[in-house]
Amino acid sequence: MYRIIKQDGKAKRGELKTVHGTIQTPVFMNVGTAAAIKGAVSTQDLQTLKTQVQLSNTYHLHVRPGDQVVRQLGGLHKFMVWDKPILTDSGGFQVFSLASLRKIKEEGVYFQSHVDGRKIFMGPEESMRIQSNLASTIAMAFDECPSSKAPKEYVESSVERTTRWLERCKNELNRLNQLEDTINKKQLLFGINQGAIFDEIRIEHAKRIAEMDLDGYAVGGLAVGETHEEMYHILDATVEHLPINKPTYLMGVGTPFNILEAVDRGVDFFDCVYPTRNGRHGHLYTNNGKINLFNQKFELDDRPIEEGCQCPACQAYSRAYIRHLLKAKEMLGMRLCVMHNLYFYNTMMEEIREAIEQGNYKKYKTEKIRRMTQI
């Protein structure tokens, strides 16, 4: 299912075979929370942009249009016309960050929808059933994501509950995958390591969930307020205690610099809203640093966003034109910027995979960071 092709230090070049195709790692998963990439980017566009995995969210799709609706329409792949792997986030993070009046109990979480205020209950079994209805390639375990600033005593009890919930997730998904009418009977399950910024809690939790022999393992609860240095420290302490022969996923991270550093620490799955969110605001990633197209200096700039870039935006349009679209609030401007950023991220992941294969990842990382910080 998952195999390592080459290691360069702790950096892993691998591949994960799934029912919806093989994922080459390290990989960046493009975020389509509600089954669409924000910025009017279609699934046909994603093929052009070298996307391997699309990520959607259990909570958002449960609230709207409803996971039963998606199931009746043949599952998420058919619904959004995407034939490659899809990972669904469990909804845990959204329940704790978006929902109001939530109440956490052993059975799960009671909360109000952020859309219409209706009362919802979600626990491990409910999250697995929703994700089974969505029929994603990879289902994420339902967990609590405690604040990085939470007291140690709270984090300890929260992680204990997350471990118990993980066992329930595993049992329920095993049951669902054996049902006759389940759309994807080979749905994979990734467990999530939590523990805020406490080394000993993270390490102990990593060891415990590693024993469960899951399809993959995520490090959650980072990029939520702690410093980059704290995040890298937690990765240094934690990743080595997760199974090396399974994919390691750093949730919600991050900048190109974060990805480069995390790959060097053994991480091979990533997702983040940065390329799409920044693109919609005219902030564009290039190999020579980030640029803001709203700046006056680009008004008469007839060059592409980045010379040599093969993305659809750079192949046809100038900085000046895209800047005009953004200023005029034309949706095409956002679309072109998002497409460029996603192409930049996916191309960087190709470069990372090649550098690991060639055994010169550290040299590549150093040079890439040097170039991107020169503006």
Automatic annotation (TrEMBL):
Signal sequence extent: none
RNA binding as annotated region, ranges: 252-258, 276-280
Ranges for domain tRNA-guanine(15) transglycosylase-like: 10-372
Reactions it catalyzes: 7-aminomethyl-7-carbaguanine + guanosine(34) in tRNA = 7-aminomethyl-7-carbaguanosine(34) in tRNA + guanine
CC cofactor note: Binds 1 zinc ion per subunit.
Main EC class the enzyme belongs to: transferase
Residues annotated as catalytic: D89 (proton acceptor), D271 (nucleophile)
GO terms under biological process: tRNA queuosine(34) biosynthetic process
EC id: 2.4.2.29
GO terms under cellular component: cytosol
Cofactors, names only: Zn(2+)
Claim: RNA-binding is one of the keywords in the record: no
Residues binding substrate, per UniProt: D89, S90, G91, G92, F93, D143, Q194, G221
Pathway linked to the protein: tRNA modification; tRNA-queuosine biosynthesis
Keyword terms of this UniProt record: Glycosyltransferase, Metal-binding, Queuosine biosynthesis, Transferase, tRNA processing, Zinc
Binding site for Zn(2+): C309, C311, C314, H340
Gene Ontology molecular functions: metal ion binding; tRNA-guanosine(34) queuine transglycosylase activity
Pfam families from the UniProt entry: TGT (PF01702)
Assembly and binders: Homodimer. Within each dimer, one monomer is responsible for RNA recognition and catalysis, while the other monomer binds to the replacement base PreQ1.
Family to which the UniProt record says this protein belongs: Belongs to the queuine tRNA-ribosyltransferase family.
Chain's role: Catalyzes the base-exchange of a guanine (G) residue with the queuine precursor 7-aminomethyl-7-deazaguanine (PreQ1) at position 34 (anticodon wobble position) in tRNAs with GU(N) anticodons (tRNA-Asp, -Asn, -His and -Tyr). Catalysis occurs through a double-displacement mechanism. The nucleophile active site attacks the C1' of nucleotide 34 to detach the guanine base from the RNA, forming a covalent enzyme-RNA intermediate. The proton acceptor active site deprotonates the incoming PreQ1, allowing a nucleophilic attack on the C1' of the ribose to form the product.
Name this protein carries in UniProt: Queuine tRNA-ribosyltransferase
Biological source species: Anaerosacchariphilus polymeriproducens
Lineage: Bacteria, Bacillati, Bacillota, Clostridia, Lachnospirales
The gene coding this protein: tgt
